Hints:
Layout: E1 14-17, H1 21-33, E2 37-41, E3 55-57, H2 63-70, E4 75-78, H3 85-93, E5 97-98, H4 102-109, H5 111-121, E6 128-131, H6 134-140, E7 144-148, E8 158-161, H7 168-177, E9 181-185, E10 189-199, E11 205-207, E12 211-216, E13 219-225, H8 232-248, E14 253-262, E15 267-273, H9 283-286, H10 291-299, E16 313-320, H11 334-340, E17 345-348, E18 358-366, H12 369-384
Parallel strand pairs: 1-2, 1-4, 2-3, 4-5
Antiparallel strand pairs: 6-9, 7-8, 7-9, 10-11, 10-12, 10-14, 12-13, 13-16, 14-15, 16-18, 17-18
Helix pairs in contact: 1-10, 3-4, 4-5
Amino acid sequence: MRVSATNPGLAPxxxxxxxxxxxxxxxxxAIALGLPLRLLAEADGVSAAQVIPDHLVGxxxxxxxxxxxxDGCAVVTFDHEHVPTEHLHALAASGLAVxxxxxxxxxxxxxxxxxxRLAELGVxxxxxxxxxxxxxxxxxxxPCVLKTTRGGYDGKGVWVVRSxxxxxxxxxxxxxxxxxxxxxxxxxxxxxxxxxxARSPSGQAAAYPVVQTTQLDGICHEVIAPAPGIxxxxxxxxxxxxxxxxxxxxVTGVLAVELxxxxxxxxxxNELAMRPHNTGHWTQDGAVTSQFENHxxxxxxxxxxxxxxxxxxxxxxxxxxxxxxxxxxLYDGFPHAxxxxxxxxxxxxxxxxxxxxxxxxxxxxxxxxEDCLERARHAAAWFRGDLGNQSE
Length: 392
Ligand code: ADP
């Protein structure tokens, strides 16, 4: 077993593939737990490489690189879902604990396989079908949503199509990239919800409160925990769906289930993520145990921490580069944001502010939802430069 040079002999080393903000935020509880992390980063200086000294820069699509970075590690986990499934099988065959494992993760990698499996499990989903041509989309019916089965994120690879002409682009992308196209009914939803659970290899599971999430241009923008006005029955149903999927797919680590709440009060599963998720960032300050800590505990097969909220309401707002965000440093926003709201919690990812880029988030919590929303929205807008505060 690899003993980390930076933490000799204390605990087994956990390998993390992918140097984004999710890996960076795993580092905080890893420090507290004394758990050494070893990172595979895409490039020098990326978000997680800034804070995890034991890292290697390389390509996660290369098996030899994956073997090198996981050499001597007890467990490997992920910041993203893009490691090729066959490489995960090869790592698992070599005796490494791959968590989540390839047979689970493939359902977060491929939306077509995810829909097939959820149908087998009887989990409610939008009507859907794999389509091979524009004619098949016409037969499926307009309007509908077309999605690449693999490789999409943050709304990329998702098209709302209302005519045969709209359907041309998705098939061009499919041809270029060799992925299949999934058609789904255009769901008339009142809001989007997310149910996050953590599950360990021994089968212990913890369910976080169900949250409401608002997307802007396909990117998570704001999260309210718990989802305002949600009935106990619907929240319980959403948690039960997430726990059921985690158990049936043998997910280890955090599973996020994105859901639509429909006009007629039903919930439908939109998609799955098997890693800490943007809709769970509120847990860093609003729950007894954050999703990042429970992900680490789960993949190391340690007892899970309580997912209970610490306050009546928590709000998370992403700091996303906007039209005015090409100037100034995020650090310049600190004096005002911190002075205005001593209760504000700020999380930055070590990234430069650029239009459309997620560079951090803020969390607030308290008894008054309107107050939490106002404080979080103001702070995020301030960091984005939308309040006219950033100067050349
Ligand atoms: P990504 O993998 O990029 O996150 P999603 O499948 O979650 O893609 O889709 C992104 C967004 O598009 C969703 O959050 C939702 O707002 C919208 N969307 C996706 N599928 C549907 C659908 N079947 N009906 C209506 N809106 C949808």
